[in-house]
Design a protein that fits this description.
mainly alpha; 55% helix; two-stranded antiparallel sheet; 203 residues; rod-shaped
């Protein structure tokens, strides 16, 4: 018995007569195991179900890192691109909302000097966010300025509850930042896999 793929499930074997994955004895015959068959390789027994499309697949068709079949990897990468764009848009809108509300809250609390400081910080945040949006990114420096503005707004809570509105916007924004980071990591991983898929199917 030489090294190679199991004729039944496609699992790579290391000089064994019986496949440890499906239990098939390695002969030249088709799979005799009474089980579901791989969609792409009808003679092989399915060893997994794609978490995205629900199709059965053999070991060769499974992409272990994602739990999907190789056919679904490129489509998953496209979904991640759309999701990233949506989350970045939400982040930008949150910054604009925070930048507009912060000086107004300070004015409502009759803190003119603080309102001026918040207006300057808001202008910087808005400029950085627009510049990052053009480059399909998000500014970490804008988040730092927002953190400073949040500290100033907390100081107003003793005089009014209005600062809770922009603080709530900032809190929601930071949850979107975490979501964006997770999506970027997943997109990077799937982009590499999609490139591997293209190499595999290239003539």
């Amino acid at each position: 018995m030489n090294d190679g793929e199991c004729y039944s499930c496609g699992l790579w074997l290391d000089d064994v007569m019986v496949c440890p994955g499906c239990g098939a004895v390695q002969t030249v015959d088709d799979a005799k195991v009474p089980a579901a068959r791989c969609v792409e390789h009808e003679k092989r027994v399915a060893v997994f179900t794609c978490g995205r499309c629900g199709r059965y697949g053999c070991a060769q068709c499974e992409h272990e890192d994602s739990g999907s079949c190789w056919s679904c990897v490129p489509s998953r990468a496209q979904v991640l691109v759309r999701e990233l764009k949506r989350v970045r848009k939400q982040m930008a809108v949150s910054v604009f909302a925070f930048a507009g509300l912060s000086p107004l809250v300070a004015l409502a609390a009759q803190q003119v000097q603080l309102a001026v400081v918040l207006a300057v910080l808001s202008g910087c945040m808005t400029t950085l966010t627009v510049n990052a949006w053009v480059h399909r990114d998000f500014s970490a420096f804008a988040l730092s300025l927002m953190g400073i503005a949040c500290i100033l707004l907390v100081c107003l809570l003793g005089a009014s509850l209005l600062p809770l509105v922009p603080l709530g916007v900032a809190g929601w924004l930071f949850t979107r930042v975490n979501r964006c980071s997770a999506l970027e990591i997943e997109h990077w991983r799937f982009s590499r896999v999609a490139a591997e898929v293209e190499r595999r199917i290239a003539p």
